[in-house]
Amino acid sequence: MKYLLVLLPLLFCTCHRPAELPPPDTTLEQMRRANAYFMEKWPDTGKRIVTNRSRASNIWTRAVYYEGLMALYAIDPQPEYYSYATDWADFHKWDLRDGETYTRNADNQAAGQTYLELYEIDPQPVRARAIRASVDSMMRTDRVDDWTWIDAIQMGMPVFAQLGVLYDEPAYFERMYEMYHHTKMVEGGNGLYNPEDKLWWRDADFDPPYTEPNGEDSYWSRGNGWVVMALARVLEILPEDNPHRAEYIQDFRDMMGALKEVQREDGFWNVSLHDPTHFGGPEASGTAMFVYGMAWGINHKLLDRDSYLPALRRGWNALVNESLHDNGFLGYVQSTGKEPKDGQPLSYEKIPDFEDYGLGAFLLAGSEIYRLQAR
C-alpha cells in the first residue's frame, strides 16, 4: 500500500469524541422530513424523470429510493408509505424498466428488490412474476460476467438472495456467488477488488495503472458504498448455513475497517477515498451508505460496537446537521456518474440530477440508526 499514512492524523483525524446520536424520536422525525420532501415533490409515482432525457420512474435511481422507503416503513408503518410503493409498482405493472422483463442489466433489475419485499407482505403472484422471470432467464445460461461495474453488485445481488429464500432454491445463491466472484476476482483481468487496500475500483477503466492526481488508486466513495449496501442487504437475507456467507462477512468487515480509517474529521467521506485533494469536501450519498453499513454491522454483531460507534456518530451527525435541510432536501449529494469528478462541484444548496438514490441511502442509514438507539 503506497497510501501516505503519515497524512492520516492531519486529514482524517478521529481522535476527538463525536457528539452523541440524536434520540430515536429525533432520528425518526429527520427521516420522515426527508421522505416527505420527496413524496411531495413527486406525488405521481409513474411520472417520467426528465433530466438530460426522459426516463421511466422505475430506473435504478428510483429503485434505491424505494429500498429506503421500505426500510422506513419497517420501523414506521404508515399506510401512505405502503401505498406510495404499491402505486409505483402498479403503474409499471410490476415489470422492469420500460417493460423489458428479460434484461440482464442489473440497473434495470433493481426495482425487483422492492417488488419482492412487497410480495413478502402480500404474496400476489404478479408482484414477483417479472423479476423472477428476468433472473431465471439469466440462470438458463452459463454467463456470470454481467456485473462489470461495482454498482451492479448492489442493484442485482440482493434480488438473487431474495429469490433464493422466497422459493427455497439454492441455485439462486450459487449463481449470485459466481457473479460476485467474477466481479471481485476476474473482471478486467484481475478483478475489481484490491485485497491490499480492501476497497474496490469502480470498473476496469480505473484498474491500475490508472491513478488519482496524487498517485493513489482510484476508489470512488459511492462505488464502494454500493458494495457495502449490497453485502449488508444480502447478509440480512442469506441463510446462516450458506457456504459463501463467511466470505461475504469477511469482505464486509475488511471494507468497513478500511473505510473507518479514511473518514474525514467532519464525519463525511471524500468522493475519492485515497485522494482527499481530488474534489475534497463533504459528500452525502457515499457517507450515508457507509453509515448504513456501520450501523447495520453493529446491529447484527458483525462489527465491534466500541470500535465503530465513534465513526458512526460522526457520520450520522454530519448528515443530519450539515446535509439535511429544514424542508427535507439533502445537500452535498453527488450527481450520477462513476468517479470523483462527476457532478462537481458539490454544495449544501446544489440539487443533483437525481435526488432519489441519496435519499434511499439516507433512509436505510436512518433505519439502522433508529434500531441501534432502540436497543
Distance between the termini: 38 Å
Give start-end ranges of low-pLDDT stretches. 1-16
Helix content: 40-55%
Main sheet record: 2 strands, antiparallel
What is the name of the CATH topology? Glycosyltransferase
Radius of gyration: 19 Å
Topology of this protein?
Blueprint: H1 8-11, H2 24-41, E1 49-50, E2 54-55, H3 60-75, H4 79-91, H5 106-109, H6 111-121, H7 125-139, H8 151-166, H9 170-186, E3 193-194, E4 199-200, H10 221-237, H11 245-261, H12 284-299, H13 305-323, H14 356-374
Antiparallel strand pairs: 1-2, 3-4
List keywords for this structure.
globular; 54% helix; two-stranded antiparallel sheet; mainly alpha; 14 helices; disordered N terminus; 375 residues; Glycosyltransferase
Short summary of the structure?
It contains 14 helices and four strands.
Polypeptide structure, described:
- A hairpin with a 3-residue loop joins strand 1 (49-50) and strand 2 (54-55).
- This protein has a two-stranded antiparallel sheet with strand order 1-2. Strands 3-4 form a two-stranded antiparallel sheet.
- The longest helix has 19 residues, at 305-323.
- The protein is 54% helix and 2% strand.
- With 375 residues, the protein is mainly α.
- The chain has a single domain (16-374), classed as Glycosyltransferase (Alpha/alpha barrel), CATH 1.50.10.10.
- The protein has helices at residues 8-11, 24-41, 60-75, 79-91, 106-109, 111-121, 125-139, 151-166, 170-186, 221-237, 245-261, 284-299, 305-323, 356-374; strands at 49-50, 54-55, 193-194, 199-200.
- It contains 14 helices and four strands.
- The model is unreliable at 1-16 (pLDDT under 50).
- The two termini are 38 Å apart.
